[in-house]
């Protein structure tokens, strides 16, 4: 550990020395003049030169290695006026900082969107990465009356969603626990509500969401499949504003405004934003959806989020925020289920005077508690809580970029359950993780190379995990680009879900188990026996693909991927005996008494995505072909989220003389999930008389299930059509009413949700559900 600290310190000092030896720098922030919200992912250039940069998620841009002379800063963005700002560079090491405020305009210059997007494709590898904004989310039918990122995530390439009820997100073969979800730097353990149409996030406060389906860089660690990094916007710094919404599903209130206004343009200012949304579907279902079983719609949730932002005159900023999310299901025929999640934190962006470095930092704490009781089963419960502290430094070196930082995480989990064989487990755990990363992006014009290194120390396991990663892009032509990414990944968090469940609303968490709780030898598919030295889960990603611009308005993206999961830790569903080495259990094999087993596997596939966006018409088409496989030491099986074919089609059209009407469609067709068939039933003898119990004459009041081969069956194909129509009514410049009429599952497709193994009764996903809603933005 001491050597790790020494090496990190040496690298840090070297990097500071390198970064300080640069030339003149023009930097700053780009904001909307009406509310001081950053304008993200757009170009800022020195007019008439090749010098330029793109704003990041904070609106920050940096133009480096600028020779001495007179220049004009040209700032442009869709829907805003263009600003020209003259500057004079008088010395080589000068740093010029500007806060630029763009006023809105009524004429939208379409070519600026194409230019900004093309520029980003030439300067970022973006392998396995999708950037989502509120504009994208609004293209999806607003089921329930309000747009939600959960509905947009379901149409991303490589993403599998398990259903309308109890839905979880599986990304390119990774289970939900292998997806890291961040909200302003805070860890979110369960981002989706029990009714899978809704996430815990309010779409109206999302500034940007980066979804990395694999091959992500060294900035992120602690997960082996994917990352979802969501950044919320600041509150309006100019005036009090908000939004009130009500629908047949639920309601929402958003309020934002200034805490301290700037005395002059570019001065210090502060703001707040608060949002609350809830579902009252369990109350409205008997009224509006009385044609279906009311027990199927007893979903209730409450989401609260608040944030304060403080911006200095130099562009540095500080944010403090907190959240409370709650969810409950009362289904007397299936499960009683409830979870709570809460947290708070802060982050900052610092732009030191006289230095070219951009410093970002965060500190947060979040907690998640869940309890569930199934009919005729024991209660399961779990909790997970973590604090996180991170800081990173970025230097913009002409077209290249240097980024490095450190991250500390402290995690506590607890998990209690009783398996199908009536064996109880109580599994608490704690862990501290220390991580450092280094990244240096090289842009040679035609070739982009983005190598990075993530090093993570797991204190509980006393393991240091070096994880090299790299991504690259080659511009074959301006319209045709090849890209690739690869890397190693690790994590010590695992899920308490049972993969044999046909459906599972319960999602618990555990840290990597102690050595005496899992099998220490593993029979590989080639029959070789491998000794398991620790319970750290590991994977490797390889992704390769192409981007092609078909004209100015059509973008095509094709990616093939291969994820190798070298070591996975899962709950041992075959446990029959207590985990003891004392007689009479000392002769029992580990596979029948340990709480956990070791597995490995792979996920392979290819994703095709086409996007058409021109004026009033928008099309998003996705086809995903995937194969997911697991090996548990004796059997190869497909996990419950192995979906072979998945097709998503989204269409949006804006019409009317004032462009105040929108109609949105979303169609999904997907092959069925694997399922373990029920072969029969036997008396559930608990052997209360000991090993000498005569099972041929002892009666039992309950039955035990005889399972068929694991996940050898398949559910029928899933398909669903959603539609919504919106009408805007403009009252004044800052007051707009929107009427929304929508419908999910338009043709009432009977998609299977749950099959009771005892009675064989089939429960289905959501039926046809029309919705009506209205919102007022002021």
Structural features, described:
The chain has 778 residues and is mainly beta. The chain folds into three domains: 2-109, Immunoglobulin-like; 129-676 and 711-777, Maltoporin, Chain A (Beta Barrel); 681-706, no CATH class. The protein is 6% helix and 53% strand. The chain is built from five helices and 47 strands. The protein has a 22-stranded antiparallel beta barrel. A hairpin with a 4-residue loop joins strand 25 (447-458) and strand 26. The longest helix has 18 residues, at 2-19. It is globular. 43% of the residues are buried. Mean pLDDT is 85; it is low at 4-21 and 108-115.
How many DSSP E strands? 47
Low-confidence stretches: 4-21, 108-115
Overall pLDDT level: 85
- CATH class value of the largest domain: Mainly Beta
Taking the sheet with the most strands, its summary is: 22 strands, antiparallel, barrel
Short characterization:
This protein is mainly beta.
